[in-house]
């Protein structure tokens, strides 16, 4: 990458990560569930307001833990958007469930709650809303029905650390929630994640699943004098080294979010003119959303314009990307899942959405990005 290039993403480091990693080394405990793991979990419990948080090696792992905790099995259906990352579906498919893809709303790009209600069947075991870009997905249309029928709600909160909706933390609303600390997310340990547990009845079993199906956590607390295999589980804990790295990021989380919001606001303010001229649409953030500026996206008028702007920006050394390939159109999605009705909004949005670079340190380069976007439309208009 040349010095002139503006990558799509650049992981941020606070500067304290390596000294915390050295401290983990000095502690003489490098496997998981040590002091740094506990520090991160306490931070999550306080900031999300969940009953319990367990650090995992990825959000994917946290979703797999959720699937085990909900006792998902072959024949069960799991309702989720098609406009999401593969892990939202895969964690449940791994246990034999059928993903049922429901369309998104054209404004927030989150699951359409009314369509979720229509898609609920006798077989529905779990509903998995994704808070796209850290903008809260409204769960109210189906929360009461889910409670009545014993359907679990698992928030895919991969984008949502420190985001709120109507004053409530995202990740504190469903029975369970999965967070990601992948390099591309707001807080990162390279790869990492967490499971937030809001239904306290699930907490004891979650810890066992986390610890390879053993009661090792009870043993570490001195509650039992030996530990043994008592349930299903896997190795979901990260070691202390990524936990140490992550704890440095957590200490700066408010600052990181503020700086991301400032970048987001700059894009939003500066692109208003292009929206007014009808060249693009900016994100719709509802009143009451306390989003965390995880993503800045725009919608182009069609797929062709998106292809051309990505190429135009690439030639100027600017990384802009799109996502998601709708899961219902993917080979695995077609094999394992089914569609609940037409997914016209998903297909339309996925073809036109463009993500602009958003990372800490890009601030002085934003005028260049914005100028390039403006130039693209000037050429189109000419
Ligand atoms: C990033 C992401 C995941 C997966 O996170 P990992 O930590 O990489 O496993 C899951 N769902 C969504 C919506 C994501 O954006």
Summarize the structure in words.
The protein is α/β, with parallel strands linked by helices. The chain has two domains: 17-251, Type I PLP-dependent aspartate aminotransferase-like (Major domain) (Aspartate Aminotransferase, domain 2), CATH 3.40.640; 253-381, Aspartate Aminotransferase, domain 1. It is 40% helix and 13% strand. The protein is built from 15 helices and 13 strands. It has an eight-stranded mixed sheet with strand order 1-9-8-5-4-2-3-12, with helices on both faces. It has a three-stranded antiparallel sheet with strand order 7-6-10, with no helix packed on it. It has a two-stranded antiparallel ribbon with strand order 11-13. Helix 1 (17-27) crosses helix 9 (240-251) and helix 3 runs parallel beside helix 4 (87-93). The relative contact order is 0.17. The protein binds pyridoxal-5'-phosphate. Residues 58-60, 84-85, 87-88, 130, 156, 158-159, 180, 182, 193 line the site of pyridoxal-5'-phosphate (PLP).
Task: Note the gap between the termini.
Answer: 32 Å
Class from helix and strand fractions = alpha/beta
CATH class identity of the largest domain: Alpha Beta
How many β-strand runs?
13
Strand content: 5-15%
Listed once per kind, the bound small molecules are: pyridoxal-5'-phosphate
Strand order in the sheet with the most strands: 1-9-8-5-4-2-3-12
What is the mean predicted local confidence, pLDDT? 96
Largest sheet: 8 strands, mixed
CATH topology annotation of the largest domain: Aspartate Aminotransferase, domain 2
What is the radius of gyration computed over CA atoms, rounded to a whole number of angstroms? 21 Å
Order of helices and strands: HHEHEHEHEHEEEEEHHHHHEEHHEHEH
């Amino acid at each position: 990458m040349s010095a002139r290039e503006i990558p799509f993403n650049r992981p941020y480091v606070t500067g304290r990560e390596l000294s915390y990693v050295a401290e983990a080394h000095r502690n003489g405990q490098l496997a998981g569930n040590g002091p740094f793991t506990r520090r991160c979990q306490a931070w999550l419990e306080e900031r999300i307001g969940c009953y319990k948080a367990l650090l995992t090696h990825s959000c994917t792992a946290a979703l797999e833990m959720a699937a085990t905790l909900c006792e998902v099995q072959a024949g069960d259906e799991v309702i989720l958007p098609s406009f999401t990352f593969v892990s939202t579906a895969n964690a449940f498919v791994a246990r034999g469930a059928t993903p049922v893809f429901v369309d998104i709303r054209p404004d927030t790009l989150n699951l359409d709650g009314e369509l979720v209600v229509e898609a609920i069947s006798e077989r529905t075991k779990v509903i998995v809303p994704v808070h796209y870009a850290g903008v809260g997905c409204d769960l109210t249309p189906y929360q009461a029905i889910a409670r009545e029928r014993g359907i679990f709600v698992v928030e895919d909160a991969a984008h949502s650390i420190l985001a709120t909706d109507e004053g409530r933390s995202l990740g504190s609303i469903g029975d369970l929630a999965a967070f990601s600390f992948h390099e591309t997310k707001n807080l990162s340990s390279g790869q990492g994640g967490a499971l937030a547990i809001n239904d306290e009845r699930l907490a004891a079993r979650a810890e066992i699943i986390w610890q390879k199906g053993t009661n090792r956590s009870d043993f570490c607390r001195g509650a039992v004098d030996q530990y043994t295999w008592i349930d299903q589980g896997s190795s979901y804990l990260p070691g202390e080294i990524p936990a140490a790295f992550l704890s440095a990021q957590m200490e700066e989380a408010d600052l990181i979010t503020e700086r991301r919001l400032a970048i987001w606001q700059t894009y939003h303010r500066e692109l208003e003119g292009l929206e007014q001229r009808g060249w693009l649409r900016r994100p719709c953030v509802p009143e009451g959303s306390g989003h965390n500026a995880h993503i800045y996206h725009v919608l182009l008028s069609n797929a062709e314009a998106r292809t051309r702007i990505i190429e135009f920006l690439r030639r100027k050394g600017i990384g802009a990307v799109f996502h998601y390939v709708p899961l219902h159109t993917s080979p695995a999605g077609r094999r394992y899942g089914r569609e609940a009705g037409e997914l016209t909004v998903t297909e339309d949005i996925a073809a036109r959405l463009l993500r602009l670079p958003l990372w800490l340190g890009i601030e002085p380069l934003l005028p260049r990005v914005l100028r390039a976007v403006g130039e693209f439309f000037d050429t189109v208009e000419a």
